[in-house]
Amino acid sequence: MNQSYSKSNGAVLSSGNGVFQNFSVSPATVGFKSYLSFTRLIEHWKSYETDDNPIRAAGAKKINAELQKAPALRQPIDDLTVLKVHADLVEQLMSAIFPSAHWNGINGAALVPYTMQPFYATPGFQRLDLLQGDNFKIGLNVGAAQFESGKILSIYSHILRQFYNFEMNFEYPLIFTGSDSQTGLERHYRIMFDRRFIEIKPAAATPVLDKKDLERLTANPTDLNLWFELLPPSAFELHGFAIMNVIDVTDQEILSSVKNDLLEKDALTSVVKFQRLQTKLRALLQRPALKLGLAGIPGAQNLLREQGRKIGQSFILDDKCRKHCSTFSGSIYDRVLKQKDTVIVADLTEYDSPTQVEAEIIKQGIKNLLIAPLFYEEKFVGLLELGSPNCGDLNAMNAFKLKEIFALFALAIKRSLDELNDRIEAVIKEQCTAIHPAVEWRFQRAALKYLQEQNSGAVAGMEPIVFKEVYPLYGVSDIRGSSTLRNNAISGDLAEQLQRAREIVLLAHCHKSLPYLAQINHRIGRQLDHLEDGLGSGDEVNILEFLRWEVEPHFDHFKTFGLDLDERIQAYRADLNSVVGTVYNKRKDYEESVAQLNEAVCGFIDAEQEKAQAMYPHYFEKYKSDGVEHGIYLGAALVEDGQFDPIYLKNIRLWQIMLLCGVARQATKLQPQLKVPLELAHLILVQNHPLTIRFRYDEKKFDVDGTYNVRYEILKKRIDKAVIKGTSERLTQPGQIAIVYSQAREATEYREYIDYLQGSGYLTDALEDFELEDLQGVHGLRALRVTVNLQASVLNRPTKKTAPILQEMVAAMVE
Question: Per-domain residue ranges for the chain?
Fold first, then answer.
């Protein structure tokens, strides 16, 4: 049914095209007779005649007096042309529902009962153009059939409440989605019905319903045939009118929709889903040209940086931007990270002190830019970027709407990074066994309990995995002077690159005697002199930026000076590492030597670990850095049968010293093969008191549990810097093993092990006992220091001194 609207005295009233003629009943009200009636509204005005407000009372009396002259409005209306005859009076009546003060600010209409036929509407409602015939246009969140059925159930819900004093709430949130006439972007509107002016009257004897009937209806609410059978539509008439209010809920709907989208697994890594997010943000801000970008942990190194590139479609991590921008130092992004707050640039083309980053962003068609840092649990996880080619599209006012979704994007980025990490960890678990075999039984038990809870419908969660009363052992084989060696390698590479750049500048100066070239040569000389004094903090970055931004940009022009310069520049560039873009020879040698040594040490430790596990199962972990450190835990709680004896602790302590002796010999054997000679110093930390360890699900590793036990972790982090009291001598020395202890009985036990290993040829006869200088928060430590016999070829051969001890240990283990 076509509908048109004309304005009369400020109100929009249905008119023409047959709408004011007898209307046909809609499919949703088949069998129900529906009449427009002002009875309840007239009663409402009647009550105002005695109002305390004399002006309101006078107005009500005047309206009621006019109603006496229009009897057609005081009875059911089946011919809508009556409204046109009494248009002014109808408008006065409806002012109780649509006050003139809100007339232009609301989207509302009055409808014939339980139909979608408006007879009175505000201008805003008309502009929305929601209806087509007796239904909504395409855009409602429910289908046409579902909506029609919903109307029938609403009628029956009204009937049950009015005639049978039975509540059956039947409400479904109706959301209409349409397009903005100016921007073409989606808008969302909530449809709300007010039915207080509707009255249902019996057209015949009211059907009798017993308790069983009511139970059948509520148990089968969507069975319309059952409703028609028990409550025939012909038994009721619909009188009055309904009020439909249309409320713009675009912001709420989009925010809710964005939240749901961000909960999806690949919300930020799927191109389709990311574009969907961008479209919704355009609708939220009503900016059709808006671009969305996300960067996960920008500026992070190696793996995290590559993971960050897989999130969203970042402006700063765009391939072209990364190619032309070696750093974002000094850029708008640098400013955001330092201020830790949202920054909006109205026009990038007028940005003060622009860098190459801003230039690359402009090339992407972006002038107006918003960058917001994203934090998850107060930790920085990435950046949200919004850009537009139109200056002023993004400003502080409309950006305020985004505050609520920053946390959602932060959570999504964190989850995306975690998901990527989980995939990596799955590979590590498959290849390297993430969960140590010695404690795998405990994780299997926890997982089984989790699945059982999940299957039973209970709230499932992995139970805490805690091992109490376990004994810790810690050891480290550290590369002596690694920091100095690394700095020397970096300094050597920088000096080589500076020298080669200097040769090019001097050759260019020979071709053209330019004072500026002499000045560059002078600056290069200053940098070389500075390197001879040692590498300081920030020197590497400063020197590379000097070469990259002030020397190398001139090389392409230098090529025009002569063929010899072209060849020299080509040779210079060929010597730069393709990954880092710098001379990387000495650093490469150092890093390869460290890796080679670590691999050899780890291979030896892994082989020895298999033997040690056969003696008694225990938890073992190792870490590679500048050297290799290892941690051991053993005790009754770590084994499934709970069987433990102190002899196993003594055995592993002895084995640990033997292990480090073997590591020392492996390092000595490997040293001639290393490009950079590296020496290892070894240390063992003794802890006699058992402690508790807990598996941290978030970090996927074991950690000590409890305040007292934290002291052990502090010791591990600081002990390698210990010096002998009264001297400046480091406790750890190449080719030696330092055994740090705090109690005399610990020293007594380890002296026995040392005595045996000296007799077996593992150690030389030298033994030193030192008091150590206090460390931060740690006092009263002492240490034994022994020298490894690096020349021994045959070990563990019993001597007269060691045979009784060995026999006693073997006998005890057999028992």
Answer: 5-248, 251-424, 438-464, 484-587, 589-814
The predicted-structure confidence for 472-497, as pLDDT tens digits, reads as follows 999 999 998 888 898 899 899 899 98
pLDDT digits (tens, 9 = 90+) for 441-468: 777 677 667 766 766 777 777 788 888 9
Taking every pair of Cα atoms in the chain, the longest distance, rounded to a whole number of angstroms, is 132
CA dihedral over 136, 137, 138, 140, signed as positive or negative: negative
Q: Are 491 and 582 in contact (CB under 8 A)?
A: no
- What gap in Å lies between CA 622 and CA 630, rounded to an integer? 4
- Going by pLDDT thresholds of 50, 70 and 90, the confidence category of residue 16 is very low
**Spatial distance between the Cα atoms of 333 and 369, rounded to a whole number of angstroms:** 11
Q: Does domain 589-814 have CATH number 3.30.70?
A: yes
- How far is Cα 116 from Cα 112, in angstroms, rounded to an integer? 7
Confidence band for 420, pLDDT divided at 50, 70 and 90:
low
The sheet carrying 343-345 orders its strands as 291-296, 379-388, 368-376, 343-345
Query: Does the structure show a pLDDT above 50 at 253?
Result: yes
Enter the CATH code of domain 251-424: 3.30.450.40
Q: Can you point out the beta strands (E) in 662-781?
A: 680-685, 691-696, 701-705, 736-741, 763-771
- How do strand 11-14 and strand 782-788 relate by DSSP bridges? unpaired
Q: How far apart are CA 637 and CA 420, in angstroms?
A: 33
Q: 194 pLDDT exceeds 60?
A: yes
